[in-house]
Amino acid sequence: MNRKVVFPQVLGLVTPSDHSSRSAFSGTRDLLLVCGGRSPSSEWFRKAAQGRELHCADSGANICRREDLLPASFVGDGDSADPETLLWLEEKGVPRLFLPREKDETDYQVLLHRIASLGESVRTIVVTGIWGGRFDHLYSALGISVGFLARETIPLLALGDSEEVLFFLCSGESLELRFASSPSVFSLLPLSESCEGVTSRGTKWDLTDVALSRHCPYAISNEILRESENCTVILKRGILGVYAWWE
Fold first, then answer.
1. Residue 48: what are its φ and ψ, rounded to 5°?
2. Residue 172 in contact with residue 16, Cβ under 8 Å?
3. What single DSSP character describes residue 222?
4. What residue ranges define each of the domains in the chain, with the CATH number in brackets?
5. Which helix (H) or strand (E) holds 113?
6. Which of 86, 227, 236, 244 has the fewest CB atoms below 10 angstroms from its CB?
7. Contact 63, 40 (CB under 8 A)
8. CA–CA dist 70, 214 (Å, integer)
9. Looking at residues 15-39, what average pLDDT do you find?
10. How far apart are CA 36 and CA 94, in angstroms?
11. Residue 69 burial (CB < 10 Å; 0-12/13-18/19+)?
């Protein structure tokens, strides 16, 4: 069964193989996790949130309060969420898990653990508020995401906002992208040690059944063919990031 991700600038259709772990997630709950990185535009966030259940990590709740969209849960140590936001969550009766500020796990990591406990009731997960800010935050969030994918515990499909989107492909999956506007840059990023059997169609420089290494990520700065506005990526083995950036 296809997994659909609808962002304002791109529609992604992920097709798991029969043996893919993500084919086991057959529920009806589509989740949008909101973190405390770069805040997406109001228009983008409202469109991305349509039909999705919201869950916040700390200052991601500021975005929800700004748009008056109530999250289903909040996780965080409260070091970056505004006091007015914390009061708003309390007044609205949002379930909250407050964490100590000095801890080993990040707020995002704890949130993913809680989402994983929902099991097969969840169909898709996308995340916003990841991009921008400090590199160590982004590196941590990306590593945590890949770790959960490697353990096959959640159907995490994409990180995105109005400027950048990263889709995750796992072994035996294919991804069809339909762009409302062509990105300025399109890249394939090996997130596991290696990615085997990578094929792409609809780009300026297509690939056919190649291997990509995390230590030599040469499939970057590609372009989508203007006449198609669509592309397809196929992966036989590994965890691959399919990245697009709009200038």
1. -65, -30
2. yes
3. B
4. 3-245 (3.40.50.10240)
5. helix 107-116
6. 227
7. yes
8. 39
9. 81
10. 18
11. middle
DSSP state of 24: G
Asked if residues 224 and 186 have their Cβ atoms less than 8 Å apart, the reply is yes
Tell me if 69 sits within 8 A of 49, measured CB to CB: yes
Kindly report the backbone phi and psi dihedral angles of residue 17, in degrees, each rounded to the nearest multiple of 5, phi listed first.
-75, 170
In which order are the strands placed within the sheet that holds 10-15? 3-7, 10-15, 174-179, 230-234, 194-201, 207-213
- Residue-wise burial string across 121-145, b where 16 or more C-beta atoms lie within 10 A, e elsewhere: ebbbbbbbbbbeeeeebbeebbebb
- pLDDT tens-digit readout, 120-135: 889 999 999 999 888 9
Q: Which one-letter amino acid corresponds to residue 60?
A: G
The two three-digit tokens of residue 169, written as one number: 């492909």
Task: State the pLDDT at residue 152.
Answer: 76
Of 183, 153, 151, the residue nearest 167 (C-alpha): 183
Q: What are phi and psi of 66, to 5 degrees?
A: -55, -40
CA 203, CA 233: separation in Å to the nearest integer? Answer: 10
**Contact status, residue 156 vs residue 148, Cβ threshold 8 Å:** yes
